[in-house]
Write a structure and sequence with these properties.
The structure holds two protein chains of two kinds.
Chain A (H helix, E strand, L loop, with lengths): L46 E5 L7 E7 L2 E12 L11 E8 L14 H12 L10 E11 L4 H16 L8 E8 L2 E4 L3 H5 L3 E8 L4 E9 L3 H34 L1
Parallel strand pairs in A: 4-5
Antiparallel strand pairs in A: 1-2, 2-3, 3-5, 6-7, 6-8, 8-9
Helix pairs in contact in A: 1-2
Chain B lengths: L9 H13 L1 H9 L30 E3 L4 E7 L16 H16 L8 E3 L3 E10 L7 H13 L7 E2 L7 H6 L5 E5 L4 E5 L9 H31 L1
Helix pairs in contact in B: 1-2
Classes of the chains: A alpha+beta, B alpha+beta.
């Protein structure tokens, strides 16, 4: 988070000059800059989504957005752990983990606790917990390859898996993130763009109800910029939700045949 | 649904499903007596197998180390693969499969460790093989070994094949014991594994397993070749 230099003489803020200069991948006013994968600034990656990926689970979904590949399984509603107290509404348990080969350099591949918590917050506003009291619904996500915008893809895929499992929700949840690179707003960033971003905005949205379940902002944003960013994200979320809906419809018609 | 369902109406189907849940052993025994599986396929046939090499673009990392060339095999069972695996409580079977795979790969000699050496005695590559089970429906070792070979297959190594008659997870819960036979592409025996259990494996049973494995080797070699040649065309 960038500080504001020279606002108050007795407070300390990081001086912008001492920050390590990273050569920007574009010039500030350069509008001819092209994204590494050739997309427009306001163009999302094509989405490949399928439900029913895992037979062992109650519901599952697989999503591929460019090089970001995610698989989500939903188990439940099933018995809560014996140590849990009685609850007359259901519980949602979320877990996001990465494979060791998801990142370009092999990592330990453990659970991503921050993403697990964010996934939970994004979904809990949409799931009707009253419909499965005393029990737990487990949502497990595995990121097979990290190509940028990992968490939004995980959230959208998880919402699809919940629908595949027949868990009642107020609406499908679609999620999209936006990066601020200098003066430009770039939607659905890839890994390289995320590493150069000055700020980011992630929106999780229920389009039919026009309600935002989660909003995450990092970096420095002016009000008009945030408004522009939000509008871009909401439009993208609505389009993504339409694709998710048609995927679910296709899955039900093929299973009826 | 095999031999039990003659009329095909809804009430008899519910009875069959209930019978399958309540008396799984008798359900399977009645099918095996007629030499078929519940889905109607004959006993010698394994389930549909396919390979898709190069699925993950980021996975070609390797590390330089001064401790000699090694291949580290890790079999992971993430929570997505089965309702019995929870985060924080890893599956008991995972390290067993890791060890089994590691032993099979080293005893088959399919990887020439000398090829991994860079400067003899000073520097060598370490190869990490990570296998993730995405959907646990039985025959995990078989699928894991096949995927390991497909991943290494661009290194011109002899293919290794394995046991017949892949059981499903449901069948594995009522199995009393298992015999795993590993043969290489010239049908030489690489390993034979029978981990105890309440039932003895007679000579004829073991010979039957080996014969079925030989047949499976031929099928899998064909599938591997097709997958590799389609990769080269791309």
């Amino acid at each position: 988070m960038a500080g504001r230099p020279g606002t108050n003489q007795t407070s300390y803020s990081p001086s912008l000059k001492t920050q390590k200069g990273r050569p920007p991948i574009f010039k500030d006013g350069d509008t001819d800059w092209v994204r590494p994968d050739g997309r427009g600034f306001h163009q999302c990656r094509p989405a490949f989504i399928r439900t029913g990926a895992v037979n062992a689970a109650s519901g599952s979904a697989y999503a591929e957005f460019g090089n970001t590949k995610v698989i989500v399984s939903v188990f439940g509603p099933r018995e809560s752990k014996k140590a849990m107290m009685y609850s007359d509404i259901g519980r949602l348990n979320c877990n996001v983990s990465y494979t060791t080969f998801a990142t370009p350099v092999r990592s330990q591949g453990s659970d991503h606790k921050e993403f697990s918590s964010m996934l939970h917050k994004a979904l809990e506003g949409a799931v009707i917990l009253e419909t499965f009291p005393k029990t737990t619904v487990d949502v497990f996500a595995l990121v097979l390859e990290s190509g940028g915008s990992d968490l939004p893809v995980v959230i959208s895929c998880a919402s699809l898996a919940l629908a595949d499992a027949g868990i009642l929700m107020y609406d499908l949840v679609a999620s999209v993130s936006l990066s601020c690179l200098g003066k430009n707003l770039v939607i659905d960033p890839i890994l390289e763009e995320e590493s150069y971003q000055d700020g980011s905005l992630m929106v999780t949205f229920m389009p039919s109800r026009y309600e935002v379940t989660q909003l995450t902002v990092t970096g420095e944003w002016s009000t008009p910029k945030i408004n522009e960013g939000m509008q871009l994200c909401l439009d993208a979320c609505s389009k993504l939700a339409k694709i998710m809906r048609s995927c679910l419809k296709e899955a039900t018609t093929t299973s009826q045949e | 649904m095999g031999l039990l369902d003659a009329s095909g109406d809804l009430s008899s189907e519910i009875e069959v499903d209930a019978f399958r849940c309540l008396f799984p052993l008798r359900f399977y025994e009645r099918h095996l007596a007629e030499s078929i599986w519940p889905d109607g396929s004959p006993l010698g046939r394994a389930r549909e197998t396919s390979i898709a090499p190069g699925a993950v673009a980021s996975a070609d990392g390797s590390a330089l180390a001064k401790i000699g060339s090694t291949v580290t095999v890790d079999f992971h069972m993430p929570p997505i693969c089965s309702p019995i695996v929870r985060p924080g409580r890893p599956a008991e079977a995972a390290p067993v499969f890791s060890k089994q795979l590691s032993d099979t790969i080293s005893s088959s000699g399919m990887i020439n460790l000398k090829e991994l050496s860079l400067v003899s005695g000073k520097a060598a590559w370490m190869a990490y093989l990570d296998i993730y089970c995405l959907d646990a429906d039985g025959a995990l070792f078989d699928a894991a070994l096949l995927s390991a070979i497909a991943a290494f297959s661009h290194l011109q190594i002899p293919a290794v094949s394995l046991n017949d008659d892949d059981p499903t997870a449901e069948e594995e819960t009522i199995m009393e014991t298992v015999v795993t036979v590993v043969l290489d592409s010239s049908s030489q025996l690489i390993s034979l594994y029978k981990p105890g259990g309440a039932v003895l494996a007679s000579t004829s049973a073991v010979q039957d397993c080996i014969a079925l494995t030989r047949q499976r080797v031929r099928e899998l070699l064909k599938i591997l070749d097709e997958a590799n040649s389609s990769m080269e065309v791309d």
